[in-house]
Amino acid sequence: MCDVTPRAEVALPADLSAARQARGFLREALCRVHQEAALEPALLLLSELVVNAVRHGAPPVRAAVECRVRVLRLEVGDGSGARPRLRRSPVEAESGRGVELVDVLSRDWGVRVDGPGKTVWCDVAG
Fold first, then answer.
1. Which of 11, 18, 44, 122 is buried deepest, with most CB atoms within 10 A?
2. Is 69 a member of any domain?
């Protein structure tokens, strides 16, 4: 755990404006001491997780960020118990790569069941 920057959480709207709001939240909450290098990939991954929560999940949608000194933990929760699936999309596909991006760009990722909903988390190297 980081002793400089506390864990931060935000409630997000259940529409596509949530991705923009989540990126603003991350820019404000990011640990500048340990995680400055993680900002760009983290912005992309957080956007993907939030869009997936809005499109395939259910309200309420929320995001959290936590500095763990060596990694930046991103979490996005929603009210649906449906788990994301890793699938390989054809090159010509126009969508369907969100979880694939998370799998490739993060150090690790997973899903935690939270009552009727879930939280998808990923660790971004700092």
1. 122
2. yes
74, 43 Cβ separation under 8 angstroms: no
What's the domain range around 27?
8-125
**Structural domain includes residue 3:** no
The answer, as to whether pTM is greater than 0.85, is yes
62 falls within a domain = yes
The CA–CA distances, whole Å, from 20 to 5, 49, 85, 113 equal 22, 12, 24, 25
Number of domains into which the chain is organized: 1
32 to 55, 63, 67, 70, 121: CA distances (angstroms) = 31, 19, 10, 13, 21
Give the Cα separation of 27 and 58 in Å (integer). 25
Measured from the Cβ of residue 79, the count of other Cβ atoms closer than 10 Å reads 17
Of how many residues is the chain composed? Answer: 126
pLDDT tens-digit series, residues 17-47 = 999 999 999 999 999 888 989 999 999 999 9
